[in-house]
Amino acid sequence: MSNEQAMRIREKHMVCVRYNMMLAVFALSFASTLGLTDALAQPAWKPSKNVEILVTTAPGSGSDRTARVIQRILQDQRLIDVSAVVVNRSGGGGAAVYSLLQQKKGEAHSIGISARNLVANPIMGRGVGYRDLTPIARLTGEYIAIGVRADSPLKSGRDVIAALKANPGALSFGIANSLGNSNHQAVARALKAGGIEPAIVKNVVFQSGGNAIAALLGGHVDVVPASLGVWTGPLKAGQVRLIAITAPARIAGDFAGVPTWREQGLDAVVSNWRAMVGAPAMGAQPLAFWVAALKRVTGTPEWKRELEDQYLSDEFLAGPALTRYLDQEHADLKTFLADARLAQ
To answer: Mean pLDDT by 10-residue block, N- to C-terminus, for the chain (344 residues)?
Structure first.
């Protein structure tokens, strides 16, 4: 074989090698692309069975109403492809719901409406708190009004302070649904500012704001702090008198005539919030789904009407900002509950 023939054979061999290498690279690239496509084609998590919206209070409360509005919007707007039910599990300042969620580790079909007691409970030795669950989103904020019966001799917040200074056991307060929560703080912070130790007054705990107001109307308690929206009906019916509100300034509309605690010389501003929480270790995809779904809920006209009707403010917050907020709440409540002799 001549040198020229040998060179041509070597050139053909090199061409074949390069061609086979190109085929191999193409095959690997194609397989990789298929794998990526398959991964992208995998559907994100969404509820595949009935969704439970757990409420920490009995029917008739502001939290219960919020849960039922969310339930209706989720289904009417087809934000979920499955049914949703509201389940009321009152007791222990929300402990019944929070403990149930804790037992559902990794489950994402049960979510719960929570409030400040989610932060306060562990400080008071009631077990499950926000660090034990998966905070999803803060939804709303609201101020609290303090009410008495329309025929009560108490005409103002200052009258409450005067009565208790004369006799710490003179009045009983109907608190829904646990001591240490925002309703309790709405009175306790004002009492503290007025020189009265909150721990020495009589408190009766009810399972919802509606139950507390029913007890007030029945003459079983003297004073009730409750969310503004719960007061609208009794106020318009002339059954109650609102003697103070926990806002920094007066609220327009039906509550324009109600003085703030600050107007009465008592610096007690309390804003309750409602949030949605899930089980521990819920998972990134279910968490992202619920954050997005609730964000869409809060953008609907029905939700905006609910905020207006119930005097709620839109305070949507999620992600790391929500965690920081809850940590700040924890620090504040730890001080308050220690002063109220409720901290463990």
So the answer is: 48 46 42 39 80 92 92 97 95 90 97 93 92 97 96 98 96 92 94 93 92 96 94 95 96 94 96 95 97 98 94 94 96 90 89
Domain contains 31: no
The closest of 187, 181, 182 to 201, measured between CA atoms, is: 187
Predicted TM-score (pTM) of this structure: 0.78
Report d(CA 332, CA 192) in Å as an integer: 15
The DSSP string of 245-265 is E-SSSPPSGGGTTPPBTGGGT
CA 13, CA 259: separation in Å to the nearest integer? Answer: 95
Query: Cα dihedral sign for 254, 59, 136, 275?
Result: positive
Closest to 47 measured CA to CA, from 331, 285, 335, 296: 285
Q: Nearest 5°: phi and psi at 146?
A: -105, 125
Any alpha helices (H) in 42-113, and if so which ranges? 62-76, 95-103
Range of the domain at 115: 51-141+272-339
Q: Provide the CATH number for the domain around residue 204.
A: 3.40.190.10
Domain boundary among 250, 271, 292: 271
Residue 142 tokens read as 């609201």
